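Let us work through a complete example step by step.
Step 1: write down the sequence.
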Amino acid sequence: MPPSGRQFCLRLGDQEAVIAEVGATLREYRAGGRHLIDGFPPGERSRDGRGQILLPWPNRIRDGRYIFAGQEQQLPINEVGPGNAIHGLARWLPWTLREVTAETVTLSLCIPAQPGYEHSLHATAHYELSDDGLIVVVQADNRGEAALPFGLGFHPYLMVPNHQVDDLLLHLPATLHLLADSRGIPTGERIPVESSEYDFTVPRPIGSLHLDATFTGLITSATGETAVTLVAPEGSPGVRLWAGQAFSYLQVFTGDSLQDPNKRRRALAVEPMTCPPDAFRSGTGLIILDPGASFTARWGIQPI
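Step 2: predict the structure and record it as tokens.
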């Protein structure tokens, strides 16, 4: 059995996606014979968050400590250096297979009440290959008897083969950048990106810029979607990530701090998030799910 559990391979035309049982992780996605994400081989586990679903919170919680419903909670610290709780509770658990076809797979997970998160949460992840690329839908349900705090994110690394991120043209339709401290926690200040090094509202090369930043003020289409594109210097080929209206934040990471030097700046993590880092403490963008309530979010990746 691979470290990431059973592997579910989806195929449609020239598209292929591999979803791993552990974390319901998007391990691989190819179209037209080229990789659109920088995943990981079947004999390894996910590292650096590659392809993982981040719930019941994305990104970081300072000190892993927060107060909800008048009770102070302490989560395990799994970003040891800065002392944060990072990326939720679902990414190292085996998800249960519910349905699989040639083009789709649906997996589910029950997160039981535990120290630091005293709630019962059920999640379903549905992956589908379509003529419009890969579509991902996640639903979260509160199956407990009290309201619970919730946030959702995803961690794909977009890539254009044979190119480092420096050369690629990034279009990031976001008007605000969240100022953060040395631990990656927002200070509360939102800075307009206009005319700054963070302004990618018009496509331009990433260059040598180091990014591990949260963006908001997203510019959306008529259907409420935000689309980020990453293309080769010649204007093609490329990859497009779209995020539905449930996502108001994007974390963008050039990978400069990755442990493996061969993976640094090889791909760009573009992480749709329903809330910014530290939302369990600040309350910004935090979703409160009442007993019996559900939340659904959609996003996807397309070749261009």
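Step 3: interpret the result. The two ends are 34 Å apart (CA to CA).
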